[in-house]
Write a structure and sequence with these properties.
Elements lengths: L1 H9 L9 H4 L6 E10 L7 E8 L10 E2 L2 E3 L6 H13 L8 E5 L3 E2 L5 E8 L17 E8 H5 L7 E5 L2 E5 L1 E4 L2 E2 L2 E2 L4 E4 H15 L15 H9 L22 H9 L4
Parallel strand pairs: 1-7
Antiparallel strand pairs: 1-2, 1-4, 2-3, 2-8, 5-7, 6-7, 9-10, 11-14, 12-13
Helix pairs in contact: 1-5
Keywords: Hydrolase, Magnesium, Manganese, Metal-binding
Organism: Protomyces lactucae-debilis
Cofactor: Mg(2+); Mn(2+)
């Protein structure tokens, strides 16, 4: 079962073709995240994934749940960046044995970064060989969830938004995670880009789609990225008017973020 899940993920081993304009974007417009999977110690034929809760004092995405990851340095490729960031943020040793399964297509972050999810697999619980050490400058907490929680829609509440002239599904989960073998004391809100990547990883791994919520069929954000490039959203020149995303109620993305964090959405 686990090997079947990994094989389905590995079929997406190379990102789709993108235009020269996207290929020529500088390293500062690229980021990578590490999606580290391993067999669940509590549920047979299920995979767990390591997530972080970002520190509340961070300038961006403060208090959000995210994968270990960040911007690429010049000359780095996707895997180098993902592993470096995982080492810096959660203390994951570069020597920790795991299989590189795939790099999913680019996803577009709200700050117009092209995010490459690097999917890896550890055949045993990585906590057995590595003690998570959060970098408190960036990470407040390290925890795990099961992919089946995503596919089954545990604590789900999502909605469609308009972004870059297209419809984008804002997923939001309220999930009970675990600190290694112990259930985390309170549920975590997983939303936005992290939730979007988790939904795609879960439906690829299980070879089936969620039935309790809607989702975007497209894997990654290739079309949206092309529109953002044509619209000049990756230009380095300062923008006097920040592009905002509104939902049907007229809420901007910043308003949506505040509502989600206080439980109003």
């Amino acid at each position: 079962m686990i090997e079947d899940m990994l094989a389905r993920l590995a079929r997406h081993a190379s990102p789709p073709q993108v235009t020269a304009a996207v290929q020529n974007l500088p390293a500062t417009k690229h980021a990578s995240v590490l999606v580290l999977l391993y067999p669940s110690p509590t549920h047979a034929d299920d995979l767990e994934v390591i997530l972080t809760l970002r520190a509340s004092h961070m300038r961006s995405h403060a208090g959000d749940v995210s994968f270990p990851g960040g911007r690429r340095d010049p000359g780095e490729h996707a895997w180098q960046c993902a592993l470096r960031e995982a080492h810096e943020e959660i203390g994951l040793s570069p020597d920790t044995p795991f299989r590189r399964i795939t790099i999913l297509p680019y996803y577009l972050a709200k700050n117009n970064l092209l995010v490459s999810p690097c999917v890896a697999f550890s055949p045993t619980n990585p906590h057995d060989r590595w003690t998570p050490v959060p970098n408190l400058d960036e990470v407040a907490e390290i925890f795990n969830i099961r992919l089946s929680q995503i596919l089954q829609g545990e604590g789900y509440d999502g909605r469609w938004l308009d972004w870059h002239d297209s419809r984008w599904k804002l997923h939001k989960f309220q999930l009970h995670g675990r600190h290694d073998e112990v259930e985390a004391p309170e549920p975590k809100i997983v939303w936005g880009l992290t939730a979007r990547i988790l939904v795609d990883v879960a439906r690829l791994a299980y070879g089936k789609n969620p039935t309790v919520y809607d989702f975007a069929d497209e894997l990654g954000d290739s079309d949206r990225i092309e529109r953002a490039v044509r619209g000049g959203h990756f230009d380095d020149a300062p923008r006097k008017v920040r592009a905002k995303t509104a939902n049907k109620s007229g809420d901007t993305e910043d308003t949506v973020r505040r509502k989600i964090q206080r439980g109003a959405l």
